[in-house]
Design brief:
Four copies of one chain form a homotetramer. By secondary structure, chain A is mostly helical. Chain A has a domain at 107-216: Cytochrome P450-Terp, domain 2 (Cytochrome p450-Terp, domain 2, Orthogonal Bundle), CATH 1.10.230. Chain A has helices at residues 28-32, 38-47, 53-66, 73-84, 89-97, 107-122, 127-140, 158-170, 175-191, 199-207, 219-238, 242-251; strands spanning 10-11, 14-16, 21-23, 26-27, 254-255. Chain A has a three-stranded antiparallel beta sheet with strand order 2-3-4. In chain A, helix 4 (73-84) crosses helix 11 and helix 8 (158-170) packs parallel to helix 10 (199-207). Chain B binds chain C through residues 70-74, 76-78, 80-81, 83-88, 91-92, 94-95, 98-106, 152, 241-246, 248-253, 266, and chain C through 70-74, 76-78, 80-81, 83-88, 91-92, 94-95, 98-106, 152, 241-246, 248-253, 266.
């Protein structure tokens, strides 16, 4: 096989020699360490562009909003994994991140794509009409509406208003916030139930307003949750509850399969 | 089984009701989103304490220092995983994080434990003597010295001086920086080779000086690398090199096992 | 929240008391250990039914066929992960399994779904017409045809003929083998290129013939590859090549981003 | 850098050309598919040697013994992960495998190392004395005794007797079974509590008797559990309990951190 276009790997992120590490064209030690916050660096690493102070404030707000929400399933999975393997922090973090799927934290990216469709459809015209039209297509295709509805925060996820407030304070482009709200208004008529915006829709609504790349949106909840997981795993190392969580869950389990003759269930089952 | 102390799970990180999410005693929406940077929030999530501006600057510097160093093995593994499963960003991030092991990024935590031992041994006395004594025990036990030596940066990893500079500028406690340097001086006499401080030792040297918890040190490279991985995976989605990397590596592989009679190796192998 | 239908977990796979472990209604120690092969047990665990000898032979053949194909990307990712974290075998296995995605080993399940569609369309009538019709829909929708074409085995993946031979010898239902071959004949006219059956299509073609559940098809390559990964990781522990693979791949990488003034690339880059 | 011994990757497991896949010197399609069971193939892949029928029977027995034990923590973690990301089977399997750590399934390998030490100490002499001596060293060093004691099966894990029975029936070398039992007798005097053999010790006790490689012991529970995980994940896809498990566990959680003034806990917490 020849080495051609397809088989020569290339990257524009980082290179180095014995003395210098170059990231996105900058000298890591001279230009970046001690000059950029981690959030600014994340934006720079990802896009190659320095973020404005307003963009950094909004990106920080989304990372803070989504990093932690208690003992959600992925955190439980992560703590159970550390309890079984306490010397392998990276394994427990990985198990927790694997729970950032389409149903839970992955909705950010899908909501971002939904907003993009409404934006394309509106083409500068009426957002409500465009929102209703795109929503109608989702309903017709039997697709779930990503980023609306929350099992606990029925009225409205409190993080939504706060993220929109930060976005307004920072003076960023609020186009996608308006699209998100237009969709929220269109949902009750279209679906017959009043699903309100949750944090997974608020995140792309504000991040698309700072020009954050659509295909990297899922990275925001993943990075944020990594911070939350590390806090939980640090607590787990000091006071382990991973097996207690599993024990409590298993107490409620009903076995509904077959049994051999004479088998007596364990007490409490 | 009764529910007792051991089996009732408890946590001090987060709780919530329908309107309010509480993190470490603060109201997430009112007190934290829009007020704390992601780095400040990471510190607060982990420790329950607000970090001083100097501590935040140092923590930011370590996260920026370790987030990215090009197509290292864990990044290659992550990009190969995304190439095989492009719709599963969380799986590729998890694969990359699993490479934060004892040999690569895990050295931060082990170096931190080494510094703690020297600190305990010195007890306010001579650091060089304490460093030599602890080092002697490592050598006698055949243990590797975590955080010293680098395959590419032989002279000294350039991130070390920069991190120490930031620590000095911020006026934090430099005790562990001095311990790290005392160990560096003690290594050549003890080991017969001149291994210099690398970034994995510089990180705990400055973070222990801001009171960062020892058992969470490994979380710093893991969180930082997650940002680097997301940047690489975003590039991978736009221009995939995962299979090209694998192809290039496999071209160099020599098969040294048995062969059935008449087998002709593929051209180029 | 009330505990209702939706919130009480239940399972039909396994229960136990202090003396007896029950799996799918059988006593594990009395009825299964020493009586069933691992492959028979896998089938029983998954379906609750004992497999016929012919079904076991076919399932064994598929597991043997797909377990190993050298230093493919997921094996490289797994060996790099173990090199970085040699004490964490489970982490390296997990990293390797994460590479069983849609592009690589996940094609088995997608091919199985394609065959089911052809079977439903044919409804006892002409398979070639049904295959051409379903294929036409895939082409119209711009969907890839899962399980056809192989980068190395252009003529035809040699595992295909062997799996079909085993299926015929064992006298199982060959309906889905015929569907797979009807699709193979239909591809050249429909796509204008002659993509031949690969192992990822041959596996569902024979497994659907033993009544293996469609939604568990992806489990077959995952289980099989776990065996291959363990063999590679055992070799890696004795003679590590994880970093050498990464080094060889990185030698070929071209950096095409910006550079700071005066930066001299490392020799060989 | 020159390509030398250290940097040229090599493997003795598999190579291929366009027509033939070679595994451990055999032609995969001609010699292995349809001729070896998956268990025989796993042994061959790992060691390069064909296993005797007795060795296969014992290896099958261990894989069947350890594959499944209900909704243990790693299975719960895996099902929660699939519930969050139902289209990513490989991610949920990976999360489950990450729970095969030192505390849970990793004990097999550690028990095997313990048996090796007793075997070396005995050197053909009295096993009870050697067992007591090695055990004394573990106790003196504060090390846990891997493979003894079980939270549910207090009397003795029922899988132990069955595995030893299969080993005796198959006529394999029972040396390590005797070592495991000598340790069991020595534990009550040494530790003051009567910890009985569990399945994680029985597995190496019989596998070392068939010459199974010590450094690959951990692969046996990992491979076996992958089969159990696939069965659970197939059930999860048909009837999801992942979130119900998490909900049940979280009902029992007590928040013991600080609260902002006026915060009212959610009902039931």
């Amino acid at each position: 096989m020849k080495i051609g276009k397809a088989t020569q790997p290339h990257t524009a992120i980082c290179t180095s020699n014995a003395d210098t590490i170059v990231v996105r064209g900058a000298d890591l030690c001279r230009d970046l360490i001690g000059h950029l916050s981690f959030t600014e660096y994340f934006h720079f690493l990802l896009t190659g562009r320095r973020a404005s102070p307003a963009a950094v404030a909004v990106l920080d707000a989304t990372l803070v909003a989504i990093a932690e929400h208690g003992l959600v399933p992925s955190v439980q999975a992560s703590r159970m994994t550390l309890a079984a393997s306490p010397e392998v922090l990276q394994g427990a973090v990985a198990a927790g991140i694997l729970g950032c799927g389409s149903v839970i934290l992955g909705a950010s990216e899908n909501a971002g794509q939904l907003f993009h469709q409404v934006q394309a459809r509106a083409a500068g015209q009426d957002l409500d009409a465009a929102a209703a039209a795109v929503l109608g297509e989702y309903v017709a295709a039997g697709r779930a509406i990503p980023g609306y509805g929350h099992p606990q925060h029925k009225a409205r996820d409190p993080r939504v208003a706060r993220l929109f407030e930060v976005a307004a304070e920072q003076g960023i482009d609020l186009r996608y916030v308006r699209i998100a709200e237009a969709l929220e208004r269109a949902i009750a008529p279209a679906l017959g139930k009043d699903l309100r915006l949750n944090v997974s829709a608020a995140i792309p609504a504000v991040l698309l307003g700072i020009g954050f790349p659509l295909q990297a949106l899922k990275g925001v909840p993943i990075l944020a949750r990594t911070a939350g997981l590390i806090a939980h795993l640090s607590e787990e190392l000091q006071s382990s509850i991973g097996f207690a969580l599993s024990y409590q869950a298993s107490r409620s389990v009903r076995y509904d399969g077959e049994l051999p003759e004479g088998f007596e269930p364990a007490p409490g089952h």
